[in-house]
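Reviewer 2 asked us to include a model.

Predict the structure of this chain.
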Amino acid sequence: MKAIRLDSPNNISKISLELASGETKELWIEAEVELSKNSDCWVFLLLPIAMQLGENIQIEGEATKGAIEAFDKAQQYLLQGHPNMKAIKLEVRNLIDDSTDSVESARGVGLFFSGGLDSTFSAETLEDIDTLISVWGFDIPVTNSAHWNLTLDFIRPYAKELNRELLVVKTNIRELANGLVEWGGDYHGTALAGVSIALTKHFKKNYLAASRQRTEPDWGHSAELAGAYTTPNHLIEQTEGIERIAKAHGIANIPRTAYVRVCYRNVKGLANCGTCKKCVRTRLEFDLTKAKYRPRGLETRPTFKELLATKGSPWDYLCYLEALTWARKNKYSGTTVPLLAVSLARLKGKTSLLAARPIKCKADIRGNIRA
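Predicted model (structure tokens):
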């Protein structure tokens, strides 16, 4: 595949991508600030897709030596846990040094922020961040402005109450990735790293919020992968993986927890529909911890009938077991009925809970939570 940099305003990075099949795609990143003029972000963003297709990448533009080294490290990591991917080569027309002359002297620290439980917990516990970075085009398609505006109705007041800047980035990269790579298993950590490196002029470091602790290389988002994408001019760091229920417990006494958004369905014109599998699971997590403050639309405990009707993946059931195990270990009551319901739901799905991997729970929450 060949990536040709297209002329665009300073706040837009755009390429024309020619695939080996002859198909051409126009891909772009747009932000409210000036983006890096080199093609480092596309070196990152195209890597898993090209590995999946088995196509070498040719960049018709400039890229830094640091980005090339990061590309090699990330590829080696992805090859360990993704048998669907093949080793590829990268060719760059103009290789440049990682000069500090091209970046701002006083750069900030950002956190990629979806408004979900993982990123909200990170926003509350990380002391050095000054900006929340929200990307339109990852969880919510760029064609769905109605759902995105609902999300902004949650994110904007949250950032204001937290006294942090909010930076919105928009990209259509998933229009290429969908159907070629699996978002969670293959790509989402790389997508975040690619957008992050495009913002190098303004950020010396960006955090990626972890969902839970994972050490296996068969996932698309990990501390090791984030470290691989780090360059001399830009640090990318994943936060510590902690159980979701521990995060719910950690923000349970903070009023702005009401702004947490976990739902992607938008079936009722609300940021949280309250009835999809992720909303139901999050309702249980907050209820088990007896949370004082809960996300809007997720204030009530799910019923036995709702939990019994759950149709989730093995990952969903592991999250339920993780939450119930954590609650029991920390002496929270009300776990018997939910455990029975999700166990029966799992059996109804014709997959035994005995196949689930043991879960090691952590009782402590690290980091100082701002009130």
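Residues 125 and 368 are 5 Å apart (CA to CA). The first strand starts at residue 2 and ends at 6. We have added this to the supplementary material.
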